[in-house]
């Protein structure tokens, strides 16, 4: 067995572990069932990746998100670690090849969804694998007490009977005390064992700013806080509007949501990751598993429906440990909207049955058929065709998934994939005979090493750009090469999938667990009220968040809006913004001592000016030099 620290240095280049990482890794190597609680950015993936590399055999990683699986596999391959993932949209042949390779020891980690564990193909092949660890990512999905319950996670405990003696390592960044206990029970822990890193983020300043003019305040924040940022919004349309609003004001911004094609999403994410785009206006479809350490700012223009969601999204700021900001722009109307959305999120059973019947009609499935069948799903077209309210229909589909009738893919399709299957001689001969294919093949081999080894995701746009072709010419060339058996080509799929996990029944025979339905509705209502309470309570933000996750911290953070007096009643929001702007304008012209800054304001404002100036100094937006002069940092 290899030494974990040696593996860490060899593949990641780090000389030491983060808090709790080594203890979690040792527990996995000691074959002890363990629940690891680490905050967003706390390095969860290393906790199962290193045990996988320290031992003979393969680690199975259960993850609910295709995008997260693909991102992890890509990162591992870049480090020289063999890994693969299986997910919806793959052909039977692709699945067969990956599973067979895993049986033959070709990978150290294999990522798959919990639904995949229930298939005969997966179970048959996994029995032949030398599995050293079962890692369950986003483990809160197993609990109905949690905010993102996914029924297929409940099958993991049963699946463990096929892997006697193999330990389970469950990981999550968001779990309250009831969820912590439920995770261990539902995953069949042999004994309860939790290793937790504090959820405290001392470098992250949380603020709730009461603002009616949210766009103007957002612009003000972005102009005063340099660096990369994320703006979380409730709808796809809002992401486009905010991105356009910011671009019109000379801020580099783009938008991202699940309705974009895979090619578009990949390109937008790449531009943000590399700094070509400074700010991404997005729905919660963006950010999961993305390792960008230098995000300085996360702004929510709407209150999320749970503190778990808010904590996870806000936690994408400041992963590098440097001062960063998580800002919620809030009005009492946000609370009203959340409470109203709760009624939409739990539609009546009659509507759920109507939605289920429409699904069967859309898929043209007879009663008694459809088990295991998948079909491409255009949600807006579905709602339009059957005259369903989109909000209620989305909630009904989620309920049908929770009740085990269907599964929904978490991503709108897949990137195009190719593998060169011809011999080098046959490929060379093909290139000689086809000039266009010759140009494209040379670009492919330079841009994507290892095309002979397995199916590789490619970007049609990138290839077209480098080869000097149109996107259509690239696709045509790949299709032609595929017909001549030079390569295997799987075009992009830009629609999500729905799979029937049970035989279709008549709507009146659709069974739903009303007790569990009402239980989840009550828990959701509680989470909404706790989120509202966080926004409206004048108490240290960090202390509130930590208390929600079961940590009793009495010392205030000193850097949130409450601790700095940002929203104190003696400095109303509008006045605060006015004083703040005037102070910064004064110091932009010249460095001044604090006394001179104070003299620029009326005597009756002196106390309020002092409070605003103190806030700016605490936040590092104004610096005091050794000579006593105040200046704006460069």
How many helical stretches?
26
Major beta-sheet overview: 7 strands, parallel
- How many distinct domains? 5
CATH class of the largest domain: Alpha Beta
What is the CA–CA distance across the termini? 51 Å
What does this protein structure show overall?
The chain is α/β, with parallel strands linked by helices. The model has no long low-confidence stretch (mean pLDDT about 90). The longest helix is centred in the last third of the chain and has 23 residues. The chain starts with a helix and ends with a strand. It is about 45% helix and about 15% strand. It has 5 domains: about 190 residues, 3-Layer(aba) Sandwich (Rossmann fold); about 150 residues, Rossmann fold (3-Layer(aba) Sandwich), CATH 3.40.50.300; about 100 residues, Orthogonal Bundle (Arc Repressor Mutant, subunit A), CATH 1.10.10.10; about 70 residues; about 60 residues. Strands 3-4-2-5-6-1-7 form a 7-stranded parallel sheet, sandwiched between helices. A 6-stranded parallel sheet has the order 8-13-12-9-11-10, sandwiched between helices. Helix 11 links the parallel strand 10 and strand 11.
Question: Which features does this protein show?
Answer:
634 residues; alpha/beta; Rossmann fold; Arc Repressor Mutant, subunit A; 5 domains; seven-stranded parallel sheet; six-stranded parallel sheet; globular
Sum this structure up briefly.
The protein has 634 residues and is an alpha/beta fold. Helix content is 44%, strand content 14%.
């Amino acid at each position: 067995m290899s030494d974990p620290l040696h593996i860490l240095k060899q593949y990641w280049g780090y000389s030491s572990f983060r808090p709790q990482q080594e203890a979690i890794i040792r527990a996995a190597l000691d074959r002890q069932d363990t629940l690891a609680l680490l905050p967003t950015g706390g390095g969860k993936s290393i906790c199962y990746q290193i045990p996988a590399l320290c031992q003979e055999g393969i680690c199975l990683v259960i993850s609910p998100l295709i995008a997260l699986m693909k991102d992890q596999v890509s990162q591992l391959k870049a480090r020289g670690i063999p890994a693969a993932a299986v997910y919806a949209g793959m052909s039977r042949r692709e699945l067969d090849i990956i599973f067979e390779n895993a049986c033959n020891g070709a990978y150290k980690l294999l990522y798959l969804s919990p639904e995949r564990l229930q298939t005969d193909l997966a179970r048959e092949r996994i029995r032949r694998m030398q599995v050293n660890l079962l890692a369950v990512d986003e483990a809160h999905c197993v609990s109905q007490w949690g905010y993102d319950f996914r029924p297929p996670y409940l099958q993991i405990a049963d699946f463990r009977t096929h892997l006697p003696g193999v330990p389970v390592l469950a990981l999550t960044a968001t779990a309250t005390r009831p969820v912590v206990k439920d995770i261990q029970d539902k995953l069949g822990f042999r004994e309860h064992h939790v290793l937790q890193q504090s959820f405290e983020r001392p470098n992250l300043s949380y603020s709730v700013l009461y603002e009616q003019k949210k766009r103007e305040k957002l612009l003000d924040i972005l102009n005063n806080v340099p660096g990369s940022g994320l703006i979380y919004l409730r709808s796809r349309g809002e992401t486009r509007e905010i991105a356009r609003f910011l671009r019109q004001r000379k801020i580099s911004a783009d938008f991202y949501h699940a309705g974009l094609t895979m090619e578009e999403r990949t390109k937008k994410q790449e531009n943000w990751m590399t700094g070509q785009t400074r700010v991404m206006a997005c729905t919660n479809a963006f950010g999961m598993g993305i390792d960008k350490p230098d995000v300085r700012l996360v702004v929510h223009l709407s209150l999320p429906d749970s503190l778990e969601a808010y904590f996870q999204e806000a936690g994408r700021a400041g992963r590098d440990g440097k001062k960063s900001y998580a800002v919620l722009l809030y009005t009492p109307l946000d609370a009203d909207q959340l409470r109203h959305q709760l009624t939409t999120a739990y539609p009546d059973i009659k509507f759920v049955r109507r939605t289920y019947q429409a699904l069967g009609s859309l898929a043209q499935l007879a009663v008694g058929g459809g088990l295991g069948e998948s079909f491409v799903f255009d949600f807006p077209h579905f709602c339009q065709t059957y005259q369903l309210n989109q909000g209620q229909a989305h909630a009904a589909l989620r309920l049908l998934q929770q009740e085990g009738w269907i599964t929904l893919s978490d991503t709108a399709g897949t990137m195009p994939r190719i593998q060169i299957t011809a011999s080098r001689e046959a490929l060379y001969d093909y290139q000689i005979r086809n000039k266009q294919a010759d140009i494209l093949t040379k670009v492919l081999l330079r841009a994507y090493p290892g095309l002979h080894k397995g199916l590789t995701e490619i970007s049609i746009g990138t290839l077209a750009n480098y080869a000097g072709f149109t996107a259509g010419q690239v696709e045509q060339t790949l299709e032609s090469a595929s017909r001549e058996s030079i390569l295997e080509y799987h075009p992009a799929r830009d629609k999500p999938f729905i799979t029937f996990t049970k035989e279709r029944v008549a709507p009146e025979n659709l069974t739903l667990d009303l007790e569990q339905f009402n239980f989840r509705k009550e828990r959701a209502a509680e989470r909404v009220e706790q989120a509202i309470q966080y926004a409206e309570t004048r108490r240290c933000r960090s202390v509130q968040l930590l208390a929600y996750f079961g940590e009793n911290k009495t010392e205030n953070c000193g850097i949130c809006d409450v601790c700095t007096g940002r929203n104190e009643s003696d400095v109303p929001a509008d006045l605060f913004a006015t004083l703040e702007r005037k102070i910064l304008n004064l110091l932009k012209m010249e460095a001044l001592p604090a006394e001179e800054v104070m003299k620029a304001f009326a005597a009756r404002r002196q106390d309020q000016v002092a409070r605003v100036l103190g806030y700016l100094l605490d936040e590092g937006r104004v610096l005091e030099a050794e000579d006593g002069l105040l200046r704006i940092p460069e």
